[in-house]
Write a structure and sequence with these properties.
The complex is a heterodimer of chains A (301) and B (635).
Chain A (H helix, E strand, L loop, with lengths): L7 H19 L3 E4 L4 H14 L7 E6 L5 H14 L3 E5 H6 L17 H11 L4 E3 L16 E4 L27 E4 L7 H11 L10 E8 L2 E4 L13 E7 L10 E3 L5 H10 L17 H8 L3
Parallel strand pairs in A: 1-2, 1-4, 2-3, 4-6
Antiparallel strand pairs in A: 5-6, 7-8, 7-9, 9-10
Helix pairs in contact in A: 1-2, 6-7
Chain B lengths: L9 E9 L5 H11 L5 H13 L15 H6 L6 E6 L3 E9 L5 H9 L3 E7 L6 H12 L4 E7 L8 H18 L3 E6 L23 H7 L12 E3 L2 E3 L7 E5 L4 E2 L4 E5 L3 E10 L2 E3 L2 E2 L3 E6 L10 E3 L6 E12 L10 E6 L2 E14 L6 E2 L9 E14 L6 H4 E5 L6 E10 L5 H10 L17 H8 L4 E6 L6 H14 L4 E5 H6 L9 H20 L3 E5 L5 H8 L7 E7 L2 H7 L4 H6 L21 E4 L5 H14 L5
Parallel strand pairs in B: 1-3, 1-4, 4-5, 5-6, 24-26, 24-27, 25-26, 27-28
Antiparallel strand pairs in B: 2-3, 7-16, 8-9, 9-15, 10-14, 11-12, 11-16, 12-13, 12-15, 17-21, 17-23, 18-19, 18-22, 19-20, 19-21, 22-23
Helix pairs in contact in B: 5-6, 11-17, 13-14
């Protein structure tokens, strides 16, 4: 007997929906971390599918570094309206003002590391017992060992050496009071899968992902966009280039790539031919070979 | 990463087990590298790290050993998942460590795999570790096992070394009941037979490792027959809608079909099968959907929706194989949570039947299990569990145990069945006696819908294509490819092969000449039923006796029976020996082996004769397509 033919993206979609429904069933107060990037937009799209015709049973949480591209916020607000979701914004600026964290020094002070404190504070404020994230195992070495249901201790920390084994499709979300989970329904997707699916499903994406002209400065091989949060170093100058972003994060550390890819098809062709990982443009990962693992242990996304 | 293509890619999940010494990480690095799935910046990082460590070559293993402790200690501790794709398929690798102290990680990786790659270092031959990996693969029900005999460059590409490993491991794997076992000689370091065929081993004419991965039958682990739908979540936006959300564990369902809900055993009908895009006509194994019912029943998470005439087993006394995954040993008599499908019940271990020494496969007496122990136990649950045997259905036959105090996942379980008490035994014997005898000469009513009507709808003629030939001649692999091709081109088709029929319909038959005749008689009847239903039926059976084949021919109208003689010489079949049967027959372990101890009567005048030696299977399929098109059986 021949099994029904299902394409790989259909199978991935089905798996992600399964994981989201497990989250909704096993937890009391789930939230969905929304960064404004393509992976979190995809998460919202899949969550809609998983619970249709009902509303998404997750509060969207945006950890706002204050260093956003304006396009990101506009897009976020439109999407939240369209799917009739509830949104909660956790502000890094508020954590700074409250003295919970201290701003980095330097020409492009990243607030990436500071997000962790704001994130954990926000989860506590909402009494969230699980936060859904759009992390994928193909993004980075440390993420290859992440579970679908990732257990965090009382301090929000991840212990990679002592993870619960995850067998078949049996997800164990049992927890003690004060502990919480991260859940990653997109674990098995690759960047290519994401773009193919976005094209297949015709999911609207922020304009930042498509080629446009922008004023940028090249620093350590990374193209940084002109913004009030970046300071030029001596000898540097902004110049106009045709670029696009492969990931959307904090405006101070998310690098652009030179690209003419103006449509989804162009992007797929570009991804297929790409010789750099998508995180290759992120200066925060370049800090050490194990940079990601260190941040994850502390409770990063 | 493969480019976007018109043909949809499918998905294959496979596991690898082994240590750095076997070259496992190098093999994975090689697959990622040769399929262009790693990037310049990743490669630069690895080159830098290799230089820093003073290694004289680019250590591809560094690509995969993700956690810092692993890089420092040069070991793979946890299961890591890797991804790559070719234009044909996306692959998910569950990369697991091979040492005995990581048995639980191997079990975890194997639980979702459809294929296992077992690495053997050609210099060392078959070690305890290689056997352990085979045992775990078989225990977890992985349908395909591929043995990669690695480091062939270090044994001078020796055919003899390869063949001795092949024969030793085949013999071992036979005892485990591995369904589909293949061997490939490779050098992961140099790339021989990984993606490109080796120039150093001209004596090896099989496929490369990647080619094998791309063409192996994906989805073989799925049970497509028994409909099981564990309810995950109830979607209820308002009073008017109540959808039971879940993923079809096995089988398929359509609107209008009768269903039964467990445990209440209430019946109703499927009103609709819903997705975000709207109602669909069918949901099959693996699909996430929501089911609505015609009657309002009280259905909640943990219930299972099935068909009234195809029920799973129900019992609160479970006989299971388990692997203990926690540091803290099992406490027999203590309560655990047992999670199976979406259902959770309390359970305790009431008997440890035995522990298996995974290295010797001896069954040892034991009172408890510690970390990584594997063995058989009896469990008692607070409420009945609805299950199928794990070897029949991975989705409904698997469970985990969770410690109620630490919340840790302490065991992985595979259900063997309900615990049999003495009272159950006579009932079983009774059933066996009632097996209905064969009744010859039934006169049929005329068919309700004429064949011509069915053919008008399908657009092609029905037919029976009968592949005959020695075991190992290539019947099945050619027919399987042919069927995929036919199916893709829109033909209504059905493939019947030996193993499948022998497990069910002909499960009571052996291999004596009488039984072989009866076997072929039943298959002929079965094929003629599919034929009447309008299908192009592909049958692949050794079918050694001319008279039996002629009888099958007589069941369909003239011109509709196509006998394909897969003409492969005995010595070639014996060289291939995909199931290790010839080796066994030569040792006298199997009686009635066609070609060795039982005759094969070759067809005198077959419609088609295929010689397979030195032929590309795709060419053979193309040849068959042309002939079938001439006969009107292909659109």
């Amino acid at each position: 007997m021949t099994p029904p033919q299902r394409s790989h993206v259909h199978q991935l979609e089905s798996e992600s929906i399964f994981v989201m429904r497990e989250v909704a069933a096993q937890f009391e107060r789930p939230v969905l971390l929304f960064s404004g990037g393509k992976d979190s937009i995809l998460m919202v799209h899949l969550a809609r599918k998983a619970f249709s015709p009902a509303r998404i049973p997750f509060t969207l949480v945006h950890i706002d570094t204050g260093h956003n591209f304006p396009e990101t916020l506009e897009f976020r607000d439109r999407l939240v309206d369209e799917v009739d979701a509830s949104l909660h914004v956790g502000s890094v600026q508020a954590s700074l003002d409250a003295g919970r964290v201290k701003e980095e020094d330097g020409p492009n002070p990243s607030r990436n590391g500071l997000q962790t404190v704001t994130l954990l504070d926000t989860l506590e404020e909402l009494k969230a017992d699980v936060a859904l994230g759009g992390g994928r195992r193909d993004e980075e070495k440390a993420r290859a060992k992440e579970r679908f249901f990732s257990h965090r201790d009382r301090f929000g920390q991840w212990d990679p050496k002592n993870q619960r084994p995850e067998l078949w499709n049996l997800f164990n979300g049992r927890r003690n009071p004060g502990e919480h989970f991260r859940a990653f329904p997109l674990s098995n997707w690759t960047e290519m899968d994401v773009w193919q699916y976005i094209a297949d499903e015709d999911i609207p994406m922020p304009s930042l992902y498509f080629a446009h002209e922008r004023s940028v400065v090249e620093r350590d091989g990374v193209l940084l966009a002109e913004s009030e949060h970046n300071t030029l170093l001596p000898g540097e100058a902004y110049e106009k280039r045709t670029i696009r972003f492969r990931t959307i994060g904090d405006a101070t550390c998310t690098g652009a790539v030179e690209s003419d890819a103006a449509t989804l098809e162009d992007i797929i062709a570009e991804v297929a031919a790409a010789r750099q990982t998508e995180r290759g443009g992120r200066s925060d990962d370049k800090r050490s070979e194990a940079a990601m693992e260190d941040r994850k242990r502390q409770g990063y996304f | 990463m493969g480019p976007s293509t018109a043909r949809p890619m499918d998905l294959l999940r496979f596991s690898t087990a082994g240590s750095v010494d076997d070259g496992k990480s190098t093999l994975i690095g090689r697959l990622l590298y040769d399929t262009k799935s790693i990037f310049e910046d990743q490669l630069e990082a690895v080159e830098e790290a290799s230089n820093r460590r003073g290694e004289g070559y680019v250590n591809l293993a560094l690509l995969t050993d993700g956690l810092r402790a692993e890089r420092e200690q040069n070991i793979t501790i946890d299961v890591a998942y890797r991804y790559f794709a070719t234009p044909r398929r996306k692959f998910i690798i569950a990369d697991t460590p091979g040492h005995i102290q990581y048995t639980r990680n191997m079990v975890t990786g194997a639980s979702t795999a459809e294929l296992a790659i077992i690495l053997i270092d050609a210099r060392n031959g078959v070690l305890t570790q290689s056997k352990r990996h085979g045992f775990i693969s078989a225990l977890l029900g992985i349908p395909h096992v591929l043995v990669a005999v690695n480091k062939m460059d270090l044994v001078d590409w020796s055919k003899e070394v390869y063949e001795s490993i092949e024969s030793e491991y085949s013999e071992f794997a036979d005892k485990l009941g591995v369904n589909d076992l293949s061997f490939i000689p490779i050098s992961a370091l140099l790339g021989d037979n990984v993606v490109d065929p080796s120039e150093n081993m001209p004596w090896y004419r099989g496929s490369t490792l990647l080619h094998h991965l791309e063409h192996v039958n994906a989805g073989a682990h799925r049970n497509l027959v028994d409909f099981r739908f564990p309810v995950q979540y109830v979607i209820r936006p308002d009073q008017d809608y109540r959808g039971y959300a879940g993923r079809v564990a096995s089988g398929s369902i359509r609107p209008g079909e009768e269903i039964l809900v467990l445990p209440s055993r209430k019946t109703t009908k499927v009103a609709s099968v819903d997705t975000f895009e709207g109602a669909v006509g069918e949901a099959a194994a693996g699909d996430s959907v929501a089911i609505t019912t015609t009657d309002e029943l009280d259905i909640s998470r943990g219930d299972m929706i099935v068909r009234p005439l195809n029920l799973p087993d129900a019992s609160s006394e479970i006989d299971a194989n388990i692997c203990w995954t926690a540091e803290e040993p099992m406490r027999p008599g203590t309560q655990y949570w047992l999670r199976q499908t979406t259902r959770e019940v309390k359970a305790f271990v009431n008997r440890v039947v035995y522990r298996i020494d995974v290295d010797t496969l001896h069954r040892d007496e034991a009172e408890t299990f510690g970390l990584n122990d594997i063995g058989r136990v009896h469990l008692t649950t607070s409420l009945p569990v609805f299950f199928d045997r794990y070897d029949l259905n991975r989705e409904t036959g698997s469970f985990i145990l969770v410690d109620p105090h630490t919340n840790a996942t302490v065991a992985a379980g595979m259900i063997r069945g309900a615990v049999q008490s003495v009272d159950d035994l006579p009932a079983e014997e009774h059933e066996a006696e009632e097996l209905r005898p064969v009744s010859p000469g039934v006169v049929w009513e005329s068919w309700n819908i004429e064949l011509a009507e069915r053919e008008r709808r399908s657009g092609h003629k029905a037919g029976v294509v009968w592949f005959t030939g020695l075991s190992g001649s290539g019947k099945s692999s050619i027919a399987r490819r042919l069927e995929h091709r036919l199916f893709e081109e829109g033909m209504q088709t059905m493939l019947l092969d030996g193993d499948q029929v022998r497990h069910g319909l002909n499960g009571d038959l052996g291999f004596t000449p009488e039984d072989r005749t009866e076997n072929i008689r039943r298959i002929g009847q079965l094929a003629s039923l599919f034929f009447r239903q309008g299908s192009l039926v592909l049958c692949t059976f050794v079918s050694p006796f001319r008279e039996d084949r002629e009888r099958a021919r007589g069941l369909v109208p003239e011109g509709r029976f196509v006998e394909v003689f897969v003409d492969t010489p005995l010595e070639e079949c014996e060289r291939r020996d995909p199931k290790g049967l010839y080796a066994k027959a030569r040792k006298g372990e199997i009686a009635h082996m066609t070609g060795i101890s039982s005759p094969y009567e070759a067809p005198e005048d077959p419609e088609i004769r295929l010689e397979t030696v030195d032929r590309d299977p795709d060419d053979l399929v193309a040849e068959l397509m042309v002939r079938l098109r001439d006969l009107g059986m292909v659109k």
